[in-house]
Each structure stands twice: as C-alpha cells, then as structure tokens.
Write a structure and sequence with these properties.
Layout (H helix, E strand, L loop, with lengths): L2 H21 L6 H11 L2 H15 L3 H28 L3 H7 L4 H11 L5 H21 L5 H25 L4 H13 L4 H16 L2 H7 L14 H5 L10 H23 L1
Helix pairs in contact: 1-2, 1-3, 1-13, 3-7, 3-9, 4-7, 4-13, 7-8, 7-9, 8-9, 9-10
Length: 268
C-alpha cells in the first residue's frame, strides 16, 4: 500500500466517523453511531504516521508547516458549522449583524469559535514539535553524555510547551494527538512499539473506563480501537503513489461543509 492509498483509506474512515457525528443521532440510532465512531478511530493514527513520513521526505518542512496552518484556518469555519451549528442554533447572518454591537452575543460567538479546534491544528503542532526535535538534535549531535542530557531536556520542555498550547487552543485530540505523533516519530521503525504507544495513550488519555463501568457507555472507551490503525500502516510500502497533495488537504473542509449542508436540509 503506497502513501496515496493509505491517505484514501484514512480519509474514508474519517468520513464515516464524521457522517456518524453530524448526521446520526446517538439517542435514536446508538449502535449505528457507535459503529461510525469506532471505524473513525483508525483515522488519526494514520494521519499521525503520515505527518512523520512527511517530515522524513519533505524537501521544505517550513512550507509543509505553512500548508497545514493555512488549511487549519480554512477548515475552522466548516468544522464549527458541521459539529456545533445545531448545538448552538447558529444563524451566520444574525451573528454577523450582532457580533460587534452586542457584547453578550459576541461573547457567545467567540465561545463557539474557541470551543474546539479542528485536527489540522493538532497535526500542525505535532509536525512543529518533531521538526524542533530534529533542529535540537542537529545542534547537540555530539555523542558525549552532556549533549545527550541537554538534547533530552530540551525535547522534554518542547513537548510540554506544545502540549500546553494544544490544551489552550482545545485542538482535536489535544495532548493525546501530540503524543501519538511523537511516539510515531520516536518508534518509526518498530510497529510493535508504535502499537503499544497508541494503546497506552488511548487507554490513559482518550478512554474513560470509570464512565463505562458506571453507565455501560461504549462511546467512552471506543478509542481503545485506535491501535488497529497499525494494520493499514504495516501494509505501507514506503512509496509515494499518485501525487494529489491538495486534494487531501481540501477534502477536510469541503466534506465538513457538505455534511453541514446535508444536515441543514434534513432539519428543514
């Protein structure tokens, strides 16, 4: 499986996940909703793996970072519309008219905007972190003990800082997403260690076993399925395949906007 096919697989399971979130109501169709969310758990680890691959093969990492940030900003409005439109009963025209003349309304609008940021922000921060790892390693590349200590200390501080930013911005997957990218970077050549890392991160940061024991809510532990993403990753042959870079970038905001429109029509 080349990079193109792996990306197609990832965006397909992501689409299934988002169809479940936007169009399927868990109160009415719980098991269908759960199935969509379960399938969607395979998407992020694959995107994390591809971010690491992108760093290893990119000719210009800074341009790569700029693309991710640009599409993070482009995707934010479709993301908010798709996932929060009906929760907040958003009326875009009304928002624009009242945004600057009604302080209370403006506060509500900004609350929605900063409630949760799309996954491109997480991928951007993750790539930035591992890129900084490489810069630090180049500067302290000596094999002596002190250089190793300084390298690890700086890497640790950078990781804490980037995770703090992810929490502050409330990015999708926040700390867990950053740590998965770091784990894939550190254990890139060991599928076993990548699997164990994703399992540990999912079980400790993404799953709520207490809620599952108390209420039997399977959604609270569905993230335990994320390590299954290692199966398609293991089939990756290291080849690029077809080059359709911007198709994959554009798919994210476009499919969210389409889901929002479909949901709006269904609500009529």
């Amino acid at each position: 499986m080349d990079s193109f096919k792996l990306k197609v697989f990832a965006i397909t399971v992501m689409l299934i996940d988002h169809v479940g979130v936007v169009l399927v109501y868990p109160t009415n169709h719980y098991w269908l909703y759960l199935a969509c969310r379960a399938i969607g758990r395979l998407a992020f680890p694959i995107f994390a793996f591809l971010i690491v691959e992108g760093l290893r093969h990119s000719r210009d990492v800074k341009k790569y970072l700029k693309r991710l940030l640009a599409f993070a900003l482009i995707s934010e409005i479709p993301f908010d519309l798709a996932f929060y439109k009906f929760d907040f009963n958003i009326n875009a025209i009304s928002d624009l008219k009242r945004l600057f003349r009604d302080p209370v309304h403006a506060n509500d609008v900004f609350h929605r905007i900063f409630l949760h940021q799309n996954v491109f922000f997480t991928l951007f921060l993750g790539l930035l972190l591992i890129y900084l790892f490489e810069l630090v390693e180049r500067k302290y590349s000596k094999n002596d003990f002190m250089s190793l200590v300084i390298n690890n200390l700086i890497d640790g501080l950078l990781t804490v800082a980037i995770c703090a930013i992810a929490i502050f911005l409330r990015t999708d997957y926040d700390i867990a997403g950053i740590l998965i990218i770091v784990a894939f970077y550190l254990f890139h050549d060991s599928k076993a260690l990548m699997t164990i890392s994703v399992l540990m991160i999912s079980a400790t940061l993404l799953c709520n076993f207490t809620q599952f024991k108390q209420f039997g809510n399977w959604l609270s532990i569905v993230s335990i399925l994320e390590p299954l993403a290692i199966i398609p990753i293991a089939l990756y042959n290291g080849k690029k395949g077809k080059s359709m870079r911007y198709l994959f970038y554009a798919f994210y905001p476009v499919h969210l906007l389409c889901l929002f429109l479909v949901a709006s029509i269904l609500m009529l």
